[in-house]
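Milestone 3.1: sequence recovery, worked example.
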């Protein structure tokens, strides 16, 4: 059977691309190597699925880390507001939380996937599961079909590669699209982890494993220069630090950066002067007790032994602590210094930084500049953004534009 369009990969970009192409009159086949669609989408946001961000487009672009200008056409062709409207039309109610993050009202990512399954059925998209593409067939620099691992050949006029990156590989994102693109002459910008936990040198971090700070501020510096600051939730782990603010900061670390430091402000709501007054108040209350026992109202229980050790005040009684020592304690709590030695592996990253080089893709259509009838959508392209729903929106927008363009060009 001949298809107008074959879409490889049934994640958010692929589902959107297939539905859009079919809506505009194409005969579409969606190939998915897993047994179901949206496997990575299902676990996104701990299963809640932060599907987009409801901010103004100007603010959206500020949260794109790699190749934001390349995304102008895609994001203006299918915006965050249009995605929310589409979800509502599919019966998926949404809600907006802190930082303009959009979630399904049910807090279930499965509702998003069900909505897109409905859309694909509505537009009569053929779907083949457990189907791995071995090769994209080209003749005279035009797409003519795809060959599957099982030997079957499918003829088509155009192909969209939407296979994802290399993060969360257990969901099927194993870099297949990079290989396909490379075989067709495309350059692959080396994939590396983005939105990934950080590995910390200091041994005491392990003692805080499992401790979450809901309202902390973190500042990233490279060679003494501030790169960025984030406010929100932070989580200590057995290897270092994670949590939303750490994941966002991790994406700003460049490949060759060295001398990377992280400074944690445990009490960002208080100035140094206010924090000092607060500590003096607690000191008055616990004047004859050991220093570590004076921190019970100020810090989480798990953090007290660590701060007592780092401040070198642990064995003193409160009435022995000098003004200078108290000043150093304030500075410690406002600037807890961590040495970043690296990131966790690519497989533990939320998204991949790197992928098909954007200069080899037409930003107005998502079509390859090298092969006619070949398109790209989603994380397989060298684009990524901070946490907050931006990466999923990029997937949906590039998926939409590639599907629309495939229909226009046939």
């Amino acid at each position: 059977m001949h298809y107008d369009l074959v879409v490889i990969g049934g994640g958010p970009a692929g589902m959107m691309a297939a539905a859009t192409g079919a809506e505009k009159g194409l005969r579409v086949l969606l190939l998915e190597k897993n047994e179901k669609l949206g496997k990575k989408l299902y676990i996104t946001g701990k299963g809640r699925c932060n599907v987009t961000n409801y901010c103004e487009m100007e603010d959206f672009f500020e949260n794109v880390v790699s190749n934001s200008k390349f995304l102008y056409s895609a994001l203006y062709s299918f915006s965050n507001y249009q995605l929310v409207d589409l979800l509502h039309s599919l019966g998926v109610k949404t809600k907006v939380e802190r930082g303009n993050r959009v979630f399904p009202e049910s807090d279930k990512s499965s509702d998003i996937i069900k909505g897109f399954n409905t859309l694909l059925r509505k537009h009569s998209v053929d779907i083949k599961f457990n189907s791995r593409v071995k090769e994209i067939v080209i003749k005279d620099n035009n797409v003519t079909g795809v060959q599957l691992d099982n030997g079957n050949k499918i003829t088509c006029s155009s192909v969209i590669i939407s296979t994802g990156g290399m993060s969360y590989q257990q969901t099927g994102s194993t870099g297949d699209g990079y290989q396909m693109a490379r075989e067709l002459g495309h350059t692959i910008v080396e994939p590396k982890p983005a939105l990934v936990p950080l590995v910390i040198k200091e041994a005491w971090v392990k003692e805080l494993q499992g401790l979450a700070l809901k309202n902390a501020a973190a500042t990233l510096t490279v060679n003494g220069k501030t790169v960025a600051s984030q406010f929100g939730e932070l989580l200590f782990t057995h290897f270092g630090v994670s949590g939303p603010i750490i994941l966002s900061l991790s994406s700003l670390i460049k490949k060759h950066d060295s001398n990377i430091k992280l400074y944690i402000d445990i009490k960002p709501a208080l100035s140094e002067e206010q924090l000092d007054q607060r500590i003096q108040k607690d000191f008055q209350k616990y004047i004859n007790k050991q220093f570590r026992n004076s921190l019970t109202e100020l810090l989480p229980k798990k953090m007290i032994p660590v701060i007592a050790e780092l401040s070198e005040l642990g064995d003193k009684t409160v009435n022995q602590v000098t003004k200078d020592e108290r000043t150093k304690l304030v500075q410690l709590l406002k600037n807890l210094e961590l040495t970043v030695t690296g990131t966790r592996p690519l497989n533990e990253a939320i998204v991949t930084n790197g992928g098909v080089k954007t200069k080899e893709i037409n930003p107005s259509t998502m079509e390859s500049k090298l092969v006619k009838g070949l398109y790209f959508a989603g994380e397989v392209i060298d684009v990524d953004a901070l946490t907050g729903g931006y990466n999923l929106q990029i997937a949906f927008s590039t998926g939409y534009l590639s599907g629309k363009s495939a229909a226009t060009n046939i």
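Residues 390-409 form the longest helix (20 residues). The longest strand covers residues 225-236.
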